[in-house]
Write a structure and sequence with these properties.
Number of strands: 4
CATH superfamily of the domain at 1-53: Nucleic acid-binding proteins
Structural class: alpha+beta
Radius of gyration: 17 Å
Number of helices: 9
Distance between the termini: 42 Å
CATH class of the domain at 1-53: Mainly Beta
């Protein structure tokens, strides 16, 4: 394991997985078993494997790299600085300044990310600014955790964010998940 990547042995073959710092912090000691959710990026001159500790982080990476001008390195840089829930909250509130904390993300790119992803995470109502009142940050964390949980259950991040956003994000995470599952089960999207 080195900064920026991890080598994972699978069936006697070592695979170089490019990872975010968040994923690296979540890895067990060398020699232990690990589960990484991967994405293979195919380019004309390379095959790059990206590994993530959670499906939420993987889905956020895919969403970020879908924005024009955001490549895999920038996607990893953002996820090294921010949790997927923080990215979703920043995009939902249009707080592009939060995204500029990542290496390689300037104000213009951050604004493009916020603009292009706004529809995908619309409905999340909260800010993640360090100066936001504690209740607002807590509400963002609740909504983000609910969206992440629904994503793990197999719902798309877009659908999960839309449904969770239709409820009061100050509700407890479990209640947001319960209400969202009930709404999704009844056909609301």
């Amino acid at each position: 394991m080195e900064p920026g990547f991890t080598v994972v042995e699978c069936g006697g073959v070592g695979f170089k997985c490019l990872t975010s710092l968040s994923t690296q912090r979540a890895l067990p000691p060398i020699g232990e078993q690990v589960l990484l959710y991967t994405h293979l990026n195919v380019r004309e001159d390379a095959l790059d494997l990206f590994g993530f500790a959670t499906t939420g982080e993987l889905n956020c990476f895919k969403m970020l790299t879908g924005v024009s001008g955001v490549g895999p390195k920038v996607g990893l840089a953002i996820l090294s600085e921010l949790a997927p829930e923080q990215v979703a909250a920043a995009v939902a509130t249009g707080d592009s300044k939060v995204l500029t904390r990542a290496s390689g993300v300037g104000p213009k790119l951050a604004q493009r990310i916020a603009l292009e992803l706004k529809d995908k995470v619309k409905g999340l109502q909260a800010g993640t600014s360090d100066f936001a009142p504690a209740g607002v940050v807590s509400a963002a964390a609740n909504a983000g955790a609910a969206v992440n949980a629904l994503t793990v259950l197999g719902y798309s991040p877009t659908d999960a964010a839309a449904v969770v956003g239709s409820f009061d994000s100050a509700l407890p995470v479990e209640e947001l998940i319960r209400l969202s599952l009930k709404a999704m089960g009844s056909g609301m999207k």
